[in-house]
Amino acid sequence: MSLAFISATGPDLLRLLALPVFAWTAVRDIKTRRVSSTVWIPLTVLGAILLVWDGWLAWHAGAVGWSHQFIYEFVVPATVSLGLVVPIAYLFWWFGGFGGADAKALLVLALLFPTLPSYTIGSWSFPLVETPIGTFSFTILTNAVIVALAIPLLLAIRNAASGRIRREMFLGWPIAWERLPETPGWLMEEPNGTTSRGLDLDALRMYLRWRGCTLEKLRTDPEHYRDPATLPAEPNPPTDGAVAVETDGGVSAAAPETGDGDATERSPPEPNEDVPSGATTDDPWGAESFLEDIEGTAYGTTPDQLRAGLETITTKETVWISPGTPFLVPIFLGMLLAVLYGDLLFGVLGLF
Fold it and tell me: Which residues cross the membrane (predicted)?
């Protein structure tokens, strides 16, 4: 529908540009768990401009500058948005509750949607339900939390419909081993049973790329690759383990977000004596050598965790994985629901 049929203020119309951008980030979050920081820059600039524009409109809406409308429809909600939603996003990121992209998305929303927008299409007015919370970014945040809390229930329903009734049904699902190199998340299985947090699949991709080997080759002869003497003398760059847009089973590294680097591919090495320093026969799969050689911690992966994960995926045809919570998806759905319906929390409370 053309914007000509939508009645709204100039700032509110321009805010609709955020919907397709957040839809794109949600898709990226599902596929790769990576979103470039550059995507937030134009939205931040737009939010700052619209914030000033909204303030100017509210200031001139009343008979005097410091009118009731200016105070309660702009100053208060904008203050809550920037003074509450921004610290919440920062604290959740600081304590590990959010990823960097999730926190940046909420920071952008606090600037982009500080006040309650209003859209009229014919006889319909959106949001459908008006709520006492004038801070729209907080409404989006609470909607996103409600959507995120519903995800385990949806996973359980999906697994139950397929006859998979087990403890892990609320947190993940089984996939074939072939899909592991192109799937975000972490293993929920180890050789001796289940685990709440197994090998991170980003760390697995880092290991495969560092070693210059595919998961298929590891499964073909696990005893051979378990020997640390088969490690490459000059390992490949491990990258950050992101899912490649076009994966070839684990060797091709995902292109950097900036697009200014190319991945290289090497054949798996034959056994040799010139192995990385630190590799010993007491280091199955070369797990310790890998973690010592790379920069960083591979998402907190330990040698034992890496070995357990490799033993699992080289012996089982299907494994249970948890996709985690790609929170940009609930954020986008929370925004869409906020624009069309309003505040889900007040809607539910209103039923009682």
Answer: 39-59, 71-93, 105-124, 136-157, 327-349
| Digit-coded pLDDT (tens) for 6-54 | 788 899 999 999 999 999 999 999 888 889 899 999 999 999 999 999 9
Domain that holds residue 20: 3-151+327-350
Percent helix, strand, coil in the chain, to 5, is 55, 5, 40
Q: Judge contact between 342 and 129, C-beta under 8 A.
A: yes
Number of domains in the chain: 2
Class of residue 283 by CB neighbours under 10 A (exposed 0-12, middle 13-18, buried 19+):
buried
Strand partners, 189: 194
Q: Cα separations (Å) of 205 from 1, 105, 225, 275?
A: 43, 26, 16, 21
Q: How many helices (H) and strands (E) does the chain have?
A: 15, 8
Query: Do 281 and 346 sit in the same domain of this protein?
Result: no
Q: Where are the beta strands (DSSP E) in 26-179?
A: 119-121, 124-126, 173-176
* Residues 338-350: b if buried by 16+ CB within 10 A, e if exposed: bbebbbbbebeee
Q: Within this chain, do residues 20 and 49 fall inside the same structural domain, yes or no?
A: yes
Same domain, 177 and 310: yes
Angstrom distance (rounded) from CA 320 to CA 201 = 12
Q: Which residues contact 316 (CB under 8 A, 6 or more apart)?
A: 177, 189
List, for residues 113-141, the tens digit of each pLDDT value. Answer: 999 999 998 888 999 887 777 899 999 99
Does one domain contain both 337 and 283? Answer: no
